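Q: Hi! First time doing this. I have a protein sequence and I read that you can turn it into a structure. Is that right? Here it is:
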Amino acid sequence: MAAETPTASATVTPTPTPSAVYKPADASGPAQNVPVPVLPEVAKTETKEGLEAFTRYWFELLNYAYQTGDVAGLKTVTSPDCEYCSKLTTSLTTNYQGDRWLAGGRITTPAASTTFERSTDGDFQVILQVVQAPISYYEPGGKEFRTASNGSNTGNVLLSNFIDGAWRVNDLHPIR
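A: Yes, that's right. Below is the predicted 3D structure, encoded as structure tokens:
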């Protein structure tokens, strides 16, 4: 009996599935395929670097909420006692009702610093510059349902503490 000669089989190379491409919101519709922020490992540590990374992450969650109307992630890392934060999430929720959406509003934090000293109430303070792009407010059909807001560039104080192995925002105040 003759030995069988192996035959080369065609190797099928899988066609990569195209990943969904991010599309910012505009008058034609809401943002699409907005990447969900991921908490960096260092932000899980009770260190100066951890607090700074968490602060950047918190503002990434806020940007995500501005683009999607989804405030759930932001709420999980924010104290319900933060009045300013509650006003932000309530406003975002309201502005996304009835298939409405926002365009713009991107927030950057070009400067942030902390002495990493705990106050008497247990919070750590981060002083930061918050720059926000103008925001347009749209309803189905692309009509603006309110006047666009101007951009802003403000100083802020973020108060946070580290409880049960995680950072949490307790308050946010614009510096006046």
